[in-house]
Structures are given as structure tokens and as C-alpha cells.
Amino acid sequence: MLKLLHLSFLPKSSNAGLLILRLSVGLSMLLLHGRDKLLNFSATAEKFPALFGMSSTVNAGLAVFAEVVCSALLILGLFTRFAALMLAITMGTAFFIIHKSSLIAGPGSGELAMVYLFAYMTLLFTGAGKFSVDRK
Prior knowledge:
Shape: globular
Low-confidence stretches: none
Distance between the termini: 41 Å
Number of helices: 6
Number of strands: 0
Structural class: mainly alpha
Strand content: under 5%
Order of helices and strands: HHHHHH
Helix content: 55-70%
């Protein structure tokens, strides 16, 4: 029974865990967020705020770069720490500035941005792991 509770029958692999984390957050960001922003860039740029002294178009472009290009890099495990840093900055901006650190459930909540932020921070500090192009 104790073996079942400790799940000791499953092999332990931090590298497999990092691969799963990279694939899950990379694919979900790319397919659920970045792709739509890229395909509808004009509409996206109109909705983006002008932040940090940059126009809304520049900010939308930076978000698309992070959510599309950096997510693809993350999936491959190529330049992982750079990609994770760019994505963490994007999600930090989304959580702290756009969503005003709101964790109240419902529309406008920053919960998802916070979850992505923590995942990207994890990858920033750990790197891609053994199953990545970076490792080759």
C-alpha cells in the first residue's frame, strides 16, 4: 500500500518532467494564444495598450514574437532559457499590468497568466533538460 501512495513504481526523471512542461506550456501558448494573435494581427494591435513608451503595434508585435517564436523555441528546447525569459516577461506584463494581479475567477482574471509565468520562471532557472536541442 505504501508503494502505491509513494508512486515508487513510476520511474523518476526530472528530464522527462521538463520535457512535459516545455511541450505543454509551449504548445498551449502557441496554439491557444499566439496563433490567433498572429493570424489576426491588425485586430490584435488595435486592442493592445501602449505600454513602456511603445505603441500598441510594437507591444502586440513583441507579444506575438514571444507567444509564437519563443513558444516554438521552447517546444524544441532551443535557446530555452532565452525563450522562457521572453515569455516570462510577457506573462508578467499580462498578469501585473493588464490583469492588475487579479486572481478573482471570471473574465479578466490573471490566473492563467500567473500559471504561465510560474511555468516559464521554472524553465528559466532549470533549462530545457536532457531531451532538447540545447543539450545536443
